[in-house]
Amino acid sequence: MKPVKTEVDFVVDEGETRGGAYVMEMDVPIFKGCGKLLAAAKQVVSNWEHGDLAAAVRNLDSSIKEIEGKVTERPRDVILLMIEHRHGRNFYACEDSDRAVDELYEFVEEYWHELPGDVGKIPSEKLDAIEIYYREKEGEESYEMQVLPLLPASVDA
Fold this sequence. Notes:
The longest helix has 21 residues, at 28-48. The strands form 3 sheets. Strands 6-5-7 form a 3-stranded antiparallel beta sheet, covered by helices on one side. Strands 1-4 form a two-stranded antiparallel sheet. The protein is built from 4 helices and 7 strands. The chain has 157 residues and is α+β, with helices and mostly antiparallel strands. Helix 1 runs antiparallel to helix 2 (54-67).
């Protein structure tokens, strides 16, 4: 253990004092990677029941290699935009959240004419238009954005 530098002792209970606090030495990448490793492990366990382990095991392997410092490039995420509407479901894979908002706004713009006449013209502010559109649809239509890790095809061991 590595002692933390402290100026004075501190009081634990009335009248009882103790010396400075100590920090356990630990490998920082492992500490920072615990959440990612846990999520990857949960994915493996979840997929075990369905018999589809390939993607989950690749994600787990990638997480381990990232924690060990064997992955040189930063993994990227992709935004999956899902729009539910009366005719079905649309899926868009977007490189960032701005692109997902653009796609959603284009959808809203295309079907804005279906809203009641008292709503008026579509606002130029994209987020305002999206909010008004889905508020007026009152649950008939919806959208969801999910952030998914884009896994490399292969990682050097």
